[in-house]
Design brief:
The complex is a heterodimer of chains A (about 200) and B (about 210).
Chain A lengths: L1 H13 L2 H5 L3 H6 L4 H30 L20 H23 L1 H7 L2 H5 L3 H13 L4 H29 L11 H15 L8
Chain B lengths: L3 H4 L15 H4 L6 H25 L8 H23 L1 H7 L1 H4 L5 H9 L6 H31 L1 E2 L2 E2 L22 H18 L7
Antiparallel strand pairs in B: 1-2
Helix pairs in contact in B: 3-4, 3-5, 3-7, 3-8, 4-5, 7-8, 8-9
The chains are: A mainly alpha (about 200), B mainly alpha (about 210).
Chain lengths: ~200, ~210
């Protein structure tokens, strides 16, 4: 249990997807103009991460890992399919976002109207694929750890985008030098937020 | 052929500083020049060939499934790049870690396929892809040169700042540790945009 809590806290603060690894930057910068849409996208990212990462974890453990197919037949023990992981992961992410979109549209139209536009966008969000790739690289041991990591990093991402959106809403009223307006100042602000987040890096868990 | 196809992506329509595409995987690899160069080269190759292949296939793919076809084509190219990197420069491949895989979701590639390759002939598409990759690579190299020079005192592993300047050798100079930290890449790109937009007033936002 303790390891789960430490993974959870670590993935939100210490190894924040945005500030430590720059994942999901494209939509992070594009969709952070108002807090409302940022919240919508943040929730959608948490949702998709929590659904796709366990699926990818199971696929990796039982199909792709070197020697993972041994449960099927002992003669497959030498097989290493890990070079296929990119294409399998992205296919899983793309199809699950499609599936989630259809399910949400069918059963909860209210949620669909607020999340709907973001779901197709998420298929190509680096944070989702990045989550799966980090899961593969760090070699989480159990399904519970992988799911906790997904939840934590999703919340970390959502936290980052909502706070950036809040700052950008305030920023409208300040007098920024003309060439720096819009994109430039946003970059610098994200950098400063990243510096602030670095204070969590000293935490040893 | 129109000159704009290969000039614009370098400056006025630079994918990183103007179109804000492909920031995701670009910033984390700019601590040193070497991984940045490798990354720039990989992205250029993938963008060029993805554009070429999608342009050849553009009249045969039904519109509804094009995203998944694009992802498969790009993923295939990235797997090739990843395997080649692992075979010939394992050290750099380890440094880049997950960011090679993340080329798949690099928005530049999808963006150029959607915006250009699906509506143009194969050869201009190839050029457009390569030029956009080069525009991205240019930013990467500029940022990484600055970060490595001020952060570690070297460029591409060669010592630039004289060793006798350093405080530990009795000099006055310290490396700027801030440059190595991830947030500095963002601030540097912000400053770069500032410089670019002061020269090119049309790019300024209201």
């Amino acid at each position: 249990m303790q390891d789960l809590i430490s993974i959870f806290v670590k993935s939100i603060f210490v190894e924040n997807m945005v500030f430590a690894y720059f994942l999901g930057m494209c939509s992070f910068l594009a969709v952070s103009k108002s807090v409302k849409t940022a919240t919508g996208l943040g929730i959608a990212v948490i949702f998709v991460l929590v659904v796709t990462l366990p699926v990818n974890y199971i696929l990796y453990e039982y199909v792709l890992k070197p020697g993972a197919l041994a449960w099927l037949d002992p003669s497959y023990a030498n097989l290493d399919l890990s070079f296929l992981s990119f294409i399998i992961f992205i296919a899983v992410v793309a199809s699950i976002t499609q599936l989630v979109e259809m399910i949400v549209e069918k059963f909860t139209p209210g949620l669909y109207s607020s999340l709907g536009i973001f779901l197709p966008l998420i298929a190509v969000n680096c944070a989702i694929l990045g989550g799966s790739l980090f899961m593969q690289e760090r070699g989480y041991e159990t399904l519970a750890q992988a799911t906790t990591y997904a939840l934590g990093s999703g919340i970390g991402w959502a936290l980052a985008i909502i706070s950036l959106a809040a700052i950008r809403e305030k920023l409208k009223y300040s007098n920024v030098p003309k060439p720096l307006r819009g994109l430039g100042i946003t970059f610098i602000m994200v950098g400063l937020m990243g510096l602030a987040f670095m204070s969590f890096m000293g935490i040893k868990l | 052929m129109d000159k704009k196809i290969y000039i614009d992506p370098l400056f006025r329509k630079n994918p990183v500083t103007v179109l804000v595409l492909g920031i995701c995987s670009s910033l984390a690899v700019t601590v040193k020049v070497e991984p940045a160069l490798v990354m720039a080269l990989s992205v250029t190759i993938v963008t060029g060939f993805a554009n070429l292949i999608m342009s050849l296939l553009r009249n045969t793919i039904p519109n509804r499934i094009r995203i998944i076809v694009q992802l498969v084509v790009v993923a295939m190219l990235v797997i090739l790049v990843d395997q080649i990197l692992k075979a010939y420069s394992y050290e750099v491949s380890k440094q880049l870690s997950v960011f090679v895989g993340l080329i798949i979701t690099n928005c530049i590639i999808m963006g150029r396929i959607e915006a250009f390759a699906l509506g143009n002939k194969p050869f201009p598409s190839l050029i457009d892809g390569l030029a956009n990759g080069a525009g991205y690579g240019m930013i990467l190299v500029i940022i990484s040169v600055l970060r490595e020079l001020f952060g570690s005192g070297t460029i591409y592993g060669f010592q630039i700042i004289p060793l006798s300047w350093y405080a530990k050798n009795g000099g006055f100079y310290y490396n700027n540790g801030l440059m190595i930290l991830p947030p500095m890449a963002l601030i540097l790109i912000g400053l770069f945009i500032w410089v670019q937009r002061s020269f090119d007033k049309d790019l300024q936002e209201k």
